[in-house]
Amino acid sequence: MNDTLQPAGEAAAPVHPMVRFAGVTKRYGPLTVLNGLDLAVAAHEKVAIIGPSGSGKTTVLRLLMTLEEVDAGVIEVDGQPLTHMVRDGQLVRADRAHLRRMRGRIGMVFQHFNLFPHMTALQNCMEAPVTVLGLHRDEARERAGELLAMVGLADKLDHHPAQLSGGQQQRVAIARALAMRPQVLLFDEVTSALDPELCGEVLSVIRDLGRAHSVTMLMVTHQMGFAREFADRVCFFDQGRILEQGPAEALFAQPREARTRQFLRAVM
Ligand code: ADP
């Protein structure tokens, strides 16, 4: 591993990043989706990932969730390799206990909510804390209730997903992710499947979360207005790399690269 690696662009790498991609390459057959990606995200930082379709944005999140494996390079979370461990000075493939520990540090909210349809909102938020973290049911129920209240659903605890609007389902999904007390929270185009009038309520929950919680956030989004307002840093992806990145205001107001300008003109 190379400690001198810096992310592309002018932003300096955080000294102790919460998330770090170093030289990460990911291929699907002949297609190179991520091409030597370097990305370091500081603890508590909120990073928005934007860019054209197919540029590898979602793959970054899927790799962090260990839903995919890298072909080259290293991913670290809180200083520890995600899928490998150091043993006798060598990097070896991690055992299941390490993977489970690392996965527990990361929560993800998906585009299509992915709630358990046969469970109520409350049960959706209790399931993993009980089965994975081993929390007592009473404690899990209390915490799930608090989180659902926080996302504005205190009166929907006993509703099943089918009885909730898309925006409400997505808010349950956010509460469910938080119930695992992750250090890192990933959002994958969480408003893309929602009618425009329902986007606002989900974005507003994420905005409040950002203020109230110190969790590190990585967000793939097509909502440029939200990225601009919410993110500490915006990374523009193109062809599996970060072409340009910087503070949200600077990147949107004065993009340096012609490709970034072209993209922003097309989507804003
Ligand atoms: P983005 O989120 O920027 O739209 P993705 O990370 O989802 O891009 O995907 C990047 C490229 O990888 C796309 O061309 C996509 O079709 C391809 N891809 C993603 N997942 C797979 C897979 N499981 N098998 C083959 N190709 C895939």
UniProtKB/TrEMBL annotation:
Record's keyword terms, sorted: Amino-acid transport, ATP-binding, Cell membrane, Membrane, Nucleotide-binding, Transport
SUPFAM superfamilies registered for this protein in UniProt: P-loop containing nucleoside triphosphate hydrolases
The ABC transporter domain covers which part of the protein?
19-264
User: Does the entry feature the keyword Membrane, yes or no?
Assistant: yes
Domain of life assignment? Bacteria
Q: What is its main location?
A: membrane
Membrane topology, from the record: Peripheral membrane protein
In the UniProt record, which is one GO cellular component term? plasma membrane
Q: Which PROSITE patterns match?
A: ABC_TRANSPORTER_1, ABC_TRANSPORTER_2
Pfam families, per database record: ABC_tran
What InterPro entries has UniProt attached to this entry?
AAA+_ATPase, ABC_ATPase_HisP-typ, ABC_transporter-like_ATP-bd, ABC_transporter-like_CS, Ectoine_EhuA, MetN_ABC_transporter-like, P-loop_NTPase
User: Which family, according to UniProt?
Assistant: Belongs to the ABC transporter superfamily.
* NCBIfam families, sorted: ectoine_ehuA
The protein's name is Ectoine/hydroxyectoine ABC transporter ATP-binding protein EhuA
This chain's source organism reads Comamonas serinivorans
